[in-house]
Amino acid sequence: MLASRYNGGHRMNMGDCFLRYRITYHRDSTFADNNGSSSSCGPSLHGKWKAFQNEHGSFIKWESPQLPSLMQIENDYKYFRLITLNADSLVVSYKHTQYGNQERTIVDYYVPEGTKVADRDFHNR
User: Fold this and answer.
1) Has residue 15 got a pLDDT over 90?
2) Quick check: pTM over 0.90?
3) pLDDT higher than 80, residue 94
4) To pair with 32 at 20 to 30 A between CA atoms, which of 19, 26, 63, 101?
5) 62-72: per-residue pLDDT in tens?
6) Cβ neighbours of residue 87 under 8 Å, at least 6 residues apart?
7) Gap between the Cα atoms of 107 and 81, Å rounded
8) 76 contacts 55 by C-beta, under 8 angstroms
9) Rounded to an integer, what distance in angstroms lies between the CA atom of residue 105 and that of residue 57?
10) What is the mean pLDDT of the chain?
11) Bridge partners (DSSP) listed for residue 47
12) Would you give the DSSP letter of residue 60?
């Protein structure tokens, strides 16, 4: 589950869709999120994933024909830098162009389902 997200170094509001967001990486190199389970969160994303290392670091590559429309990018693939990967957490960063065409670094912190995350919904009080 998504524990927290930072956009350009600032912690983002964890609204309903973020609080419900789950992504599953399957052993057959496919992945899927759960956005489609809630009508207000958009369609679910499905695709293939691959982890690899090179001289620039460790990465996860997503491939899906849905990526151009869902992430407003030209390619049907996206790279995520692996910052942390262990039994308790997955932390990835990636570049994403948002408001006003300004590219920012997004950092997502994922934890296993059911993990207690202090202050996860700090914006919803």
Assistant:
1) no
2) no
3) yes
4) 101
5) 999 999 998 88
6) 112
7) 9
8) no
9) 16
10) 89
11) 31
12) E
